[in-house]
């Protein structure tokens, strides 16, 4: 039976080898759904990282998300197999990549990452590697490919939160024309020091999909409830590096009383924490 609420202090999780395509990298698995292949991990790429392969890839029908926690990683993104030059990006702290299915990309071999890179990476299904070369009959691959959505959170303004009065939000991706409720919205939520909800309890709605948050910095108390009619909830004192996921029938909320002295910023996926 799948747990409806899971809390992980990622600092206590051991590192293990990441993908065999990326030797020298390590990761911590935070979520895996054996039925759908949906997954989430924290991964680390060391400074100077490079790979020997000379091909690009896409992940089939899986939608992939990547958020840069620190450092940088150079990447190329390609609109089509016939686009051999691609667009160069040096993704750095605070960047989000929302890669729709069949989005072609590849790690840049030169330059490599100067700082190394820590990321959160997640997918709606298996992150299989479907390779596309740079030479040959590239037109035979067809045109059924999609460009990614990218957002630099540092360049976006904070806006008032629509449900949590006194908090702020940055929506990094709403999914565009093809939103996925397991995946969108993706955003940052700022809970300021000393904040508490306007009413005694603010409880979000029960939704039929998994939602999650990761504390980027600071700390905050939140509550989860076993169901829509649960009289009381369970308090979680979240701090930097904590991951919390919840799914049907659980819901998340905030209660008045003890608050955070320093506030927090959380990366939120499938929720804005107030819905």
What do you see in this structure?
The protein contains no helices and 21 strands. The model has no long low-confidence stretch (mean pLDDT 93). With 275 residues, it is an all-beta fold. Strand 6 and strand 7 form a beta hairpin.
Q: How would you summarize what this structure contains?
A:
This protein has 275 residues and is mostly beta strands. It is built from no helices and 21 strands.
Lay out the secondary structure:
Blueprint lengths: L4 E5 L6 E2 L8 E7 L6 E7 L10 E3 L5 E15 L8 E6 L2 E5 L4 E4 L9 E7 L6 E3 L16 E4 L6 E2 L7 E6 L12 E6 L9 E3 L7 E15 L8 E6 L2 E5 L4 E5 L8 E6 L6
Antiparallel strand pairs: 1-19, 2-3, 3-4, 4-10, 5-11, 6-7, 6-8, 6-9, 6-10, 8-12, 13-14, 14-15, 15-21, 16-20, 17-18, 17-19, 17-20, 17-21
The overall pLDDT average reads 93
Low-confidence stretches: none
Could you give the count of β-strands? 21
Roughly what percent helix? under 10%
The helix/strand class is mainly beta
